[in-house]
Specification:
The chain is mainly α and about 140 residues long. It has helices spanning about 5-35, 45, 50-65, 75-100, 110-125. Helix 1 packs antiparallel against helix 3 (about 50-65) and helix 3 packs antiparallel against helix 4.
C-alpha cells in the first residue's frame, strides 16, 4: 500500500466518521425538537438523520474499506458534500415548518439544489480526474 493510498483511505474514514456524528446530531435534534412540538410529528424531521447516514457515512466508508483505483477529487467531494448538506438542512427546515403549522413556497428549492449538487459531484467523479494512489517509486538503473 502506498503513502497516498493510506492518506486517501484515512481521509475517507475521517469523513465517514464526521458524517456519522452529523447523523447522530440530526437524530438528537429531531428527537428534542419533536419533544417540544406538542405531539406534532413529521417524517421530514424524524428521518433527517438518514440523509447524512446513507449519503455520507455509507459511501465514504466504502471508499475507506474497499480502496478503489481512483478516489474522488476535491471538487467532486465538495459538490457531493454540499448536496448532502443542502438536502439535510432542507429536510430539517421543512420539518420545522410542518411542526410550526405553516408553509413556505420556497422549500421546493432545497431538493432541487441538493439533487443538482449531488449529481454534479457524482458526474465529476465518474467523468473527471480523481485522485489515484501514487505509483510505486521507480528504481534507478
Amino acid at each position: 500500500m502506498f503513502t497516498s493510498d493510506t492518506s486517501n483511505r484515512r481521509r475517507m474514514a475521517l469523513t465517514a466518521f464526521v458524517y456519522l456524528l452529523i447523523s447522530l446530531f440530526c437524530a438528537l435534534f429531531g428527537f428534542v425538537y419533536e419533544c417540544f412540538s406538542h405531539e406534532v410529528y413529521t417524517p421530514y424531521m424524524i428521518y433527517a438523520f438518514a440523509l447524512p447516514l446513507a449519503g455520507g457515512t455509507l459511501p465514504y466508508s466504502c471508499f475507506a474499506l474497499f480502496s478503489p483505483r481512483r478516489y474522488p477529487g476535491r471538487a467532486a467531494r465538495n459538490l457531493y458534500n454540499a448536496g448532502i448538506a443542502t438536502l439535510t438542512v432542507g429536510s430539517l427546515f421543512q420539518g420545522a415548518l410542518v411542526i410550526y403549522g405553516t408553509t413556505n413556497r420556497l422549500t421546493w428549492a432545497y431538493p432541487i439544489a441538493g439533487g443538482v449538487l449531488l449529481a454534479a459531484g457524482i458526474l465529476l467523479y465518474a467523468f473527471g480526474k480523481g485522485e489515484s494512489p501514487a505509483a510505486p517509486p521507480k528504481k534507478d538503473q
